[in-house]
Amino acid sequence: MWWNTLLLALRAIRRNLMRSFLTVLGIVIGVAAVITMVTLGNGATRSVSEQIASMGSNLLMVMPGQRFGPGSEGAAKFKSADVEAIRNQIGGAWRVAPVVNKTAVAVYQAENWSTVVYGSNEDYFQAGNWELAAGRTFSEAEQRSGKAVCVIGETVREKLFGGQNPIGADIRIKQFSCQVIGLLKPKGQSAMGNDQDDVVVMPLRTVQRRLAGSQDIGRIMVSVRDEASIDTVQRQLTLLLRERRNISESEDDDFKVMDTRQIAETLTSTTKILTMLLGAVAAVSLLVGGIGIMNIMLVSVTERTREIGIRLAIGALEREVLLQFLIEAVVLSSLGGLTGIVLATTASLALARLMGIPYLFDPGINLLAFFFSAAIGVIFGFFPARRAAGLDPIDALRHE
Amino acid sequence: MRCFSPLIRLAGITKTYGHGQAAFQALKGIDLTIESGDFVAVMGPSGSGKSTTMNILGCLDTPSCGSYQFQGLQVENLTRNQRALLRRHFLGFVFQGFNLLPRTTALENVELPLIYRGEPAARRHTAARHALQQVGLEGWEHHTPAELSGGQQQRVAIARAMVTRPEVLLADEPTGNLDTRTSQEIMELISRFNREQGLTVLMVTHEPDMAHYAKRVVRFVDGRVDQDLRNAEVT
């Protein structure tokens, strides 16, 4: 009975090629749209979180003033003593990197490039998740004496050196000459959209003396060993700095301890909302596809009711007719669903490459879209048939 | 009595459409006995209940009241599925409007009842080709109804009815949509099956010319059997 009914169902599909094609098409478009949108959204989210991870993990930023930009200049800068206090008094702080940055033009032979020079210590590389592509970082002695050595980012290397090996070369920054001892692995764009590889890193003391001309420290990066203790360290940092900066209980902080997780969460939640929005738009297209299927199925009910009458008259059992219609609906919607998944995979791969985001296969949305489309096909293919098959054969035959 | 149980026996069959005031009694007590191998033409004006009777005989419709015996089997007690199986194994239908599956070839239309009977593919093809050959449609196997004339479509329908070698052929105005010459060809075909294979034929018609092919003519008037005569011309 199964085999014969399958044969009948396949014959019915072949007999109504246009109707079958339109049914499948409705499902294909709906399924492909939903899966593509959600897959790309997931890719975008992943790409944002990867960029955030490249900023450094479990990282706290300590900055003078309460906010970015104008208004923060008035607040007192940090001093080396603050860095030492943090390093000595806060057990949860793993890496502590004071940072001073100045924009400067770097010159090598005929090439020059305007970049940002960071002054910091050895911890800067670990806290900032930097890896070396070549060479080395600063030695203890170089840091202490403020020697003119630097580690450069990929962008700076490309602009100044082109194809040449930068290690050991001397570049000129402002009026002093500086030896390149290391090259950083590229990190790409930051979550904010700026080029993270456009950097020159020198020992803190070198920058303070030769570029900034002061003992001030712009900000302090504090990396925490394990994620669970971030909140504790943040609290301890605030207390310690309030004490060191003589802030009375009634006054607000004149510095800010920022948790990179918060930035990460904000950005990730934004892309997640966008993904959901795209998904919702795509879900509407799935629904429209479903309504298209419903239309096709209902329009063909007249013809199919007579067909059911004929089948019943020549001796088909009600359940055989129903099974045939069920198989038809399942075959068409599965075909549409699978084609939709294939199409979505192809489109997502191509678009992900175009947009420069990773392709992430999400089995959940594939299954969801597939079963939703199957449900639509089965509901609208099967239920009108069930009503017709329940009629007396003569009523089904006479149906106009 | 048991040995001479007739093929079909209707007793006091009534059929009422609607309820209460609007109720309309299409059949007001039909008594009819049909022997195996007979060729019965059912005649009568429109609304006399001849098609309703035919549908009840074919288990396509259920009577409101009365008794219907098929080979001694009490049909009114059967379930929907049992009636479907009765149609599958003992009855063949030919309709005025042909009722072939659209966009389906003649061969596949004829195969259809065999598929429901669960015949294997090879036997099905042979039987279907043979049936088409018998109705003179050799070479038309792969044409769809839209590509066939009315007479040819009715031949396909007859082949579809005959392919299962049924006990009874029920034909509801089989020539109603056909011209005179084609009608005569169809009638020749049906009476040949009756003569050569002993097929019992029940045919509704309102054309006296067609009734001449039958051995017996039953005339309905107003939901009752009015006249029941043997055709003198045909033996």
Radius of gyration of chain B: 18 Å
In percent, how much strand structure appears in the residues of chain B?
A: 25-35%
> What is the typical, i.e. mean, pLDDT of chain A?
87
Low-confidence stretches of chain A: none
Number of distinct beta strands of chain B: 10
Strand order of the largest sheet of chain A: 2-3-8-5-7-6
CATH class of chain B, named Alpha Beta
Order of helices and strands of chain B: EEEHEEHEHHHEHEHEE
User: First CA to last CA of chain A: what distance?
Assistant: 30 Å
Biggest interface: chains and residue counts? A-B, 26 and 30 residues
Proper CATH architecture of chain B: 3-Layer(aba) Sandwich
How many structural domains in the coordinates of chain B? 1
Share of helix among residues of chain B?
25-40%
DSSP E strands of chain A, number: 10
Judged by helices, strands and strand pairing, the structural class of chain B is: alpha/beta
- Overall morphology of chain A: elongated
Largest sheet of chain A: 6 strands, mixed, barrel
What is the mean predicted local confidence, pLDDT of chain B? 92
How is this fold's topology laid out?
The complex is a heterodimer of chains A (400) and B (235).
Chain A: H1 2-15, H2 17-54, E1 59-64, H3 80-89, E2 93-108, E3 111-120, H4 123-127, E4 132-135, H5 140-145, E5 149-152, H6 154-161, E6 170-173, E7 176-184, E8 199-203, H7 204-212, E9 219-224, H8 230-244, E10 255-259, H9 260-299, H10 301-313, H11 318-355, H12 363-389, H13 393-397
Parallel strand pairs in A: 3-8, 5-7
Antiparallel strand pairs in A: 1-9, 1-10, 2-3, 2-6, 2-9, 4-7, 5-8, 6-7
Chain B: E1 8-17, E2 24-34, E3 39-43, H1 50-57, E4 65-70, E5 73-74, H2 80-90, E6 91-95, H3 106-117, H4 121-134, H5 150-162, E7 168-172, H6 180-197, E8 200-204, H7 208-211, E9 216-221, E10 224-230
Parallel strand pairs in B: 3-8, 3-9, 6-7, 7-8
Antiparallel strand pairs in B: 1-2, 1-4, 4-5, 9-10
Helix pairs in contact in B: 3-4, 3-5, 4-5, 5-6
